[in-house]
Amino acid sequence: MTTDNLIRTRPLMAGFGVEILDVDLSTADEDARQNVIRLFHENGAIVLRGQTMAPDDLMAFIKLFGEPEDHTQTKFTLPGYPKIFLLSNKEVDGKPIGAHNDGVGWHTDYSYKEEPVMCTMLYAIEVPPEGSDTLLADLCVAYNVLPDARKAELDGLMLHHSYQHLMSSREFGRMELSDEMKAANPDVIHPLIRTHPANGRKALWVSTGTVKGVIGMEDAQAQALLDELVEFVTEERFVYRHKWQAGDILVWDNRCTLHTGTLFDDTKYVRLMHRLWAKGDKPF
Q1: In 3D, which of 183, 185, 165 has the Cα closest to residue 175?
Q2: What are the distances in angstroms from CA 102 to CA 15, 81, 89, 92, 184?
Q3: Residue 239 in contact with residue 232, Cβ under 8 Å?
Q4: Contact, 106 vs 260, CB < 8 A?
Q5: If you classify domain 2-278 with CATH, what class do you get?
Q6: Under 8 Å between Cβ of 83 and 66
Q7: CA distance 57 to 26
Q8: Are 82 and 69 in contact (CB under 8 A)?
Q9: DSSP assignment, residue 29?
Q10: What is the pLDDT, as a whole number, of residue 3?
Q11: Average pLDDT per run of 10 along the chain, which is 284 residues long?
Q12: Rounded CA gap, 206 and 5, in Å?
């Protein structure tokens, strides 16, 4: 445990992420809030437990990171708050109020956009007593431990990201996109090795779901490489597992991490979370 500008923290795991202690976001002053943002940029992920956040509080907090991002799927946004997306297996009048099992599978948010989101924020309102953990993989450390020769082989490779590919192949319900959705989400090309704009660190920015292929490679060769790299960066030594408590806020940096949700017994338990995004920039 360390004290940083009067804010106590402890690492989520060695070299990655911090839990920020003794900060109540609903009453924190501007200095404390700016220190929270600084700790996020320096550490890749932050956790604050025991928070009580109304939708307006969440909106005020996400704006400290940057401009809030819209959601591609708008069906499950919170009424009156289009930037807040509901993750839940709850139903009201026989209809789901949120997306269920959304985000299962290692990925980085909005990678199918020209400018993927910078950060993802989850706020837990109701959580199961078991299951539904969120896992974060540190892509900078994964890149750093690669041999120099392997780094040289991967440097310069470009990945083909496709929202249409994601929605046509996802495990939890395939979706045929309308022409409007296709036009709004064209395929994009991003580097496999991404440079963090805030600190210059390199990240092995591979993903699943949205990645259709590697530019210049045959499909079979590309898929083998992608499978190899995802398996590597998600080894236990690179992964933080967040076990949720009601009132938790978890924010992670999509420029240097992969994440996945995990399943839970939805016949016994209920989950309700709010998800928000802050806009990012074009990977380089």
Answers
A1: 165
A2: 28, 19, 10, 19, 21
A3: no
A4: yes
A5: alpha beta
A6: no
A7: 7
A8: no
A9: -
A10: 64
A11: 78 97 94 96 97 97 97 91 97 94 92 96 97 97 98 97 82 66 87 95 94 95 97 98 98 98 96 98 96
A12: 35
Query: 223 in helix, strand or coil?
Result: helix
Query: Tokens 């909005």 map to which residue?
Result: 110
Task: Delimit the domains of the chain by residue range.
Answer: 2-278
Question: 151: closest CA among 188, 115, 193?
Answer: 193
Place of tokens 């923290």: 9
- Residue count of the chain, please give it: 284
Cβ contacts of 198 within 8 Å, gap of 6 or more:
41
For 239, counting Cβ atoms within 10 Å of its Cβ (0-12 exposed, 13-18 middle, 19+ buried), the class is buried
Integer Cα distance of 185 and 164 in angstroms: 8
**7-13/2-4 β-pairing:** antiparallel
Tell me, what amino acid is at 31? Answer: D
Q: What is the rounded radius of gyration, in angstroms, for the C-alpha atoms of the chain?
A: 19
φ, ψ at 199 (rounded to 5°): -135, 0
Evaluate if pTM is beyond 0.90: yes
| DSSP H stretches of helix in the chain | 30-43, 55-65, 139-144, 148-154, 163-169, 179-184, 219-233
